[in-house]
Amino acid sequence: MTSNDGLAAGTIVVGVDGSPSSSEAVAWAARQAVLDHRPLTLLHAYHLENAAWVAQAGLDQSVILQSLKDSGTTVLGRARLAARAIAPDLEVDEYIVRADPRDALSLASKTAAMVVVGSRGHGRVASLLLGSVGLSLARHGCCPVVVLRPHGAETRHGVLTGTDGTDDTLPALQFAYGLAASRHLPLTVLTFGPGFPWFGDAATDAASLEMQEQVQRWLAELGEKYPEVGVSVRHVEDPEAEALVATATLMDAVVVGSHHEGMLASALGRALAVAVVEHAPTTVVVVPDAPVA
């Protein structure tokens, strides 16, 4: 395909650029597509970053664009073979589009069930670009976004998420349970009190009690839905981003929310998501308020 305008709803989309990080993202996404019983979409985006320079240099822009497209088609073909090697019966679609990867994947996130990207690209420039893709999706993605980081040989300890008992944190908590269940991993939930910096000394014991009761209700409901998930709950006093990044060191993945409604909640949610994507030494999943079902 030459455009992602007709990308089917509910697929798991993975950004492909031929780099080792991209290949790891394809493998992770293929396995997740099998676990979630969803098709996989391989998406490659190409564009000229400096068309004016190309013109000034006397180069033929159409020739360069065709070369980029041909290269992308080859990359997609290799990615398809890699995905099929993992899951021979998996439904795999390929899309190649002339666009900035950030724009193409943000558009795809409007209908996808999940978007997966690597954390590093091909070469210095591509590395910076793919890193910026993950950050852009953390800010603007409309579905859960997975920014995959390669793991070393250390033993990992499952999925990590956090909640303060407010409704904005529930989608991330729900997604974390589902991810832990599908991958047969334990789940660690960090709870945070209502005494965030912007509340100052206004937080009361009543507010703290209400938060704890809400979290307990959610954990009970999700525990019934996912009885196979072993859950560890720990309350922390550190700022949320700092605690998540520190605890994520030996986790398979950390799941955070990104709030898109309400100016203050939206800004705070995006800031948390971006901080964790930038600093967590493991795979990060950013879940918006209303992920695609």
Describe the fold and architecture:
This protein has about 290 residues and is of the alpha/beta class. The chain has 2 domains: about 10-150, 3-Layer(aba) Sandwich (Rossmann fold); about 160-290, Rossmann fold, CATH 3.40.50.620. It has helices spanning about 20-35, 50-55, 60-85, 100-110, 125-140, 170-180, 205-225, 240-245, 265-280; strands spanning about 10-15, 40-45, 90-100, 115-120, 145-150, 160-165, 185-190, 230-235, 255-260, 285-290.
| CATH secondary-structure class of the largest domain | Alpha Beta
Number of helices: 9
Q: Major sheet: size, sense and barrel closure?
A: 10 strands, mixed
Radius of gyration: 20 Å
Strand content: 15-25%
**Within the largest sheet, what's the order of strands?**
3-2-1-4-5-10-9-6-7-8
Order of helices and strands: EHEHHEHEHEEHEHEHEHE
- Enter the CATH topology name of the largest domain: Rossmann fold
Number of strands: 10
C-alpha termini separation: 25 Å
Quick description:
This protein is of the alpha/beta class.
Secondary structure elements and their pairing?
Blueprint lengths: L11 E4 L4 H17 L3 E7 L4 H6 L4 H26 L5 E7 L2 H8 L5 E5 L4 H18 L4 E4 L10 E5 L6 H13 L4 E6 L12 H21 L5 E6 L3 H8 L5 E6 L4 H17 L3 E6 L5
Parallel strand pairs: 1-2, 1-4, 2-3, 4-5, 6-7, 6-9, 7-8, 9-10
Antiparallel strand pairs: 5-10
